[in-house]
């Protein structure tokens, strides 16, 4: 199989408490975003964070897996909406850890029913490489609903 | 205190010919950003991908953890330049994340910097979340 390589670049200046960074998409050039510790742990104030980038990665990975599973079941989706929420929490040692990723998906898929969507959602979770990664150290939960379904 | 971060993604059409959008994120910092299967697995064509976003998450998390460790050691950095390169093999998953950092850190020697960088690689929350990645490498030196 081909190896696909994607790179990001980060510049950080100063201490964690008062410094700030910029993270950019070196492979695609699709984004260049400031981040700070305050925006990571407290109010985002319009700035991204590592955890938000993970949420975007997981949602974008999951949506393609779910589309593939629905197509495999002969009910290709017209549209999928996926929301991913990553939770970071302080654990007993005082360190911060990503403790969970929750996926909420809505599908418009002619011919599908609630049961087939639930099956596809589960298979998509099993097939999404980022679900597998996160599950090794945190909880991954998935809920899927069929829009306009029974 | 728990911090939640959210992203919303939509997809229309089939996997190969359809296209997706990272419509928005909770912070409002970015979106919409296009994603397609072709741009994920072939040329990016200016579009991001889950793997590029993981690289961005890892590089930004590592940089923060290193800056924290350096400040704790009494040598806060003037500047850290980090790159994170993620390798993805379809059907297998993410097989590698390679971190490279070049630091400008007054009053610190190379060995101490490398040790702090190794600790940041081990302990930053995204490294912990990527613990199942078979290979996470680090190349750290002072400018």
Describe this structure in words.
The complex is a heterodimer of chains A (150) and B (143). With 150 residues, chain A is α+β, with helices and mostly antiparallel strands. Chain A has 2 domains: 8-41, no CATH class; 50-146, K homology (KH) domain (GMP Synthetase, Chain A, domain 3, 2-Layer Sandwich). Chain A has 4 helices and 6 strands; from the N terminus they run βββααββααβ. Chain A has helices at residues 37-41, 50-72, 114-127, 129-135, and strands at residues 4-13, 20-25, 32-35, 79-90, 96-108, 139-146. In chain A, the strands form 2 sheets. Chain A has a 3-stranded antiparallel β-sheet. The longest helix of chain A is centred in the middle third of the chain and has 23 residues, at 50-72. Chain B is of the alpha+beta class and 143 residues long. Chain B has 2 domains: 7-41, no CATH class; 50-142, GMP Synthetase, Chain A, domain 3. Chain B contains 4 helices and 6 strands; from the N terminus they run E-E-E-H-H-E-E-H-H-E. In chain B, the strands form 2 sheets. A 3-stranded antiparallel β-sheet of chain B has the order 1-2-3. Chain B has a 3-stranded mixed β-sheet with strand order 4-5-6. In chain B, strand 1 and strand 2 form a beta hairpin. The model of chain B has no long low-confidence stretch (mean pLDDT 94). Classes of the chains: A alpha+beta (150), B alpha+beta (143). The interface between A and B is large, with 89 and 85 residues. Strand 1 of chain A pairs antiparallel with strand 4 (79-89) of chain B.
């Amino acid at each position: 199989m081909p190896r696909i390589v994607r790179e990001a670049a980060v510049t950080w200046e100063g201490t964690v408490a008062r410094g700030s960074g910029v993270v950019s998409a070196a492979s695609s050039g699709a984004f260049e975003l400031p981040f700070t510790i305050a925006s990571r742990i407290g109010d985002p104030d319009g700035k991204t964070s590592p955890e938000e980038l993970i949420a975007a990665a997981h949602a974008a990975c999951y949506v393609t897996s779910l589309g593939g599973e629905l197509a495999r079941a002969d009910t290709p989706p017209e549209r999928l909406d996926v929301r991913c929420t990553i939770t970071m929490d302080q654990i007993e040692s005082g360190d911060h850890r990503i403790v969970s990723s929750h996926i909420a998906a809505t599908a418009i898929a002619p011919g599908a029913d609630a049961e087939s969507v639930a099956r596809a959602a589960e298979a998509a979770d099993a097939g999404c490489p980022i679900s597998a990664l996160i599950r090794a150290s945190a909880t991954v939960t998935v809920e899927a609903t069929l829009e306009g379904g029974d | 205190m728990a911090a939640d971060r959210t992203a919303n993604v939509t997809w229309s059409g089939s996997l190969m010919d359809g296209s997706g959008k990272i419509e928005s994120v909770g912070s409002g910092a970015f979106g919409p950003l296009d994603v397609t299967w072709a741009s994920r697995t072939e040329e990016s064509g200016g579009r991001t991908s889950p793997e590029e976003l993981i690289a961005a998450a890892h590089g930004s998390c590592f940089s923060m953890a290193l800056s924290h460790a350096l400040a704790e050691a009494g040598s806060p950095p003037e500047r850290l330049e980090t790159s994170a390169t993620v390798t993805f093999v379809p059907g297998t998953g993410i097989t590698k994340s390679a971190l490279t950092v070049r630091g400008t850190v007054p009053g610190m020697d190379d060995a101490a910097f490398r040790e702090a960088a190794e600790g940041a690689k081990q302990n930053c929350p995204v490294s912990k979340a990527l613990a199942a990645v078979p290979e996470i490498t680090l190349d750290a030196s002072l400018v």
